[in-house]
Design goal:
With about 350 residues, the protein is α/β, with parallel strands linked by helices. It contains 15 helices and eleven strands.
């Protein structure tokens, strides 16, 4: 049941991916639990050092012998303006003061080296490599494929999907506007690339010949069946796994996921300089009033890091980034295996009962 071109290619039982979730939620325990349950677990490794990636891969391999994926962020050189950065740093001191942490911390390095991160993924010969925020060089995509790694890109519009197909990737995650976390948009402005999944999947499936993986707001068997009907070959679910037993999300974040509803999320760039969907917080509301420019990604991400970390330490979700998709009312505190099992059972019943 639910065998698709993706389950056959990846040698997995069910067409369900657990979304890579950088920043803590997608622990090796979660990734392995999903893969052991017949789905495809994905390590969100975008913020990890090359050495941390190697360790996370090793830990995952100790917990599962099933296929799993590693996901990275394609690095784009940010536009830098001393003035914008200084004004922001000064503004953020207000929150630092509230949280009792030092003012004007020096900026840490912008990001891990994408080259070095990719090198580890290559060396480790992981079954699946996915990426977001752009397209890596042809060389990198080809070397992954030559080592037997299945390569997946992320698109938020049909044009992005067409570009990705031309670059040689083997499948595409269609990220609808419902999706939690950062937008993978890389061609137009984020605001022009907010396509609902219902409209995005069939149009993408019509215009590329490689498999499309639907992502955004999918929480259960209904979302799975609907996505397959729209032309997807699998689904990628993030928010559905955020409050799972194996998720590494902070307890205060999990609590918010379990209590917040579909009308409490918003797309914002105030945390990182890149558009991302998350549950509204005091930080988001306050920063709406900021009249200056927000430094671009990843500068703003680095600038707000101490604030997010101090907020987490204080168990105060109001200054943390609480990435979540619009399906969050359906999130449950279950084991990852139960989430997969329930999703498949519900989808199975829907199909058997002919949707009655
Ligand atoms: C907490 C969180 C972190 C995320 N981190 C990543 C990431 O590191 N890489 C990536 O490609 N997508 C990331 N995403 C986006 C997911 O791949 C996916 O598009 C999204 O979760 C789908 O929407 P849903 O949360 O409604 O299921 C993240 C999403 C969330 C909620």
């Amino acid at each position: 049941m639910f065998e698709t071109v993706i389950t056959r290619k990846l040698n997995i039982k069910y067409p369900i991916f657990q979304a890579p979730m950088a920043g803590g939620p997608s622990t090796p325990a979660l990734v392995a639990a999903v893969s052991n349950a017949g789905g495809l677990g994905n390590l969100g490794a975008g913020y990890l050092t090359p050495e941390q990636i190697r360790i996370a891969i090793k830990q995952t391999r100790e917990l599962t012998d099933q296929p799993f994926g590693v996901n990275l962020f394609v690095f784009n050189q940010p536009e830098e303006s001393e003035e914008t950065n200084e004004a922001m740093s000064k503004h953020l001191n207000f929150y630092r003061n509230e949280l009792g942490i030092p003012q004007n911390p020096s900026l840490q390095k912008l990001s891990e080296s994408f080259d070095e991160q990719v090198h580890v993924v290559l060396e480790e010969r992981v079954p699946v490599f996915s990426f977001t925020f752009g397209i890596p060089s042809q060389d990198r995509i080809q070397s992954m494929k030559q080592r037997g790694t299945f390569v997946i890109g992320t698109a938020t519009t049909v044009d992005e999907a067409i570009r990705l197909e031309a670059s040689g990737v083997e499948a595409i995650v269609a990220q609808g506007s419902e999706a939690g976390g950062h937008r993978g948009t890389f061609l137009k402005d984020a605001s022009n690339s907010l396509i609902g999944l219902m409209a995005l999947v069939p149009q993408m499936a019509d215009h590329v010949s490689i498999p499309v993986i639907a992502s955004g707001g999918i929480m259960d068997g209904r979302g799975l069946v609907a996505s397959l009907a729209l032309g997807a070959a699998a689904v990628q679910m993030g928010t559905a796994f955020l409050a799972s037993t194996e998720s590494g999300a902070h307890p205060a974040y999990k609590q918010k996921i379990l209590s917040a509803n579909e009308d409490t999320t918003e797309i914002t760039s105030v945390y990182s300089g890149k558009a991302a969907r998350g549950i509204q917080t005091q930080f988001m509301r306050d920063m709406c009033l900021y009249v200056g420019e927000i430094p671009s990604y990843p500068i703003q991400h680095i600038m707000t890091r101490d604030i997010r970390q101090a907020s987490a330490k204080a168990n105060n979700p109001e200054f943390m980034s609480l990435w979540a998709g619009q399906g969050l009312r359906m999130a449950e505190e279950q084991s990852a295996a139960t989430i997969i099992k329930q999703t498949i059972e519900q989808a199975d019943a829907l199909v058997k009962n002919r949707f009655n």
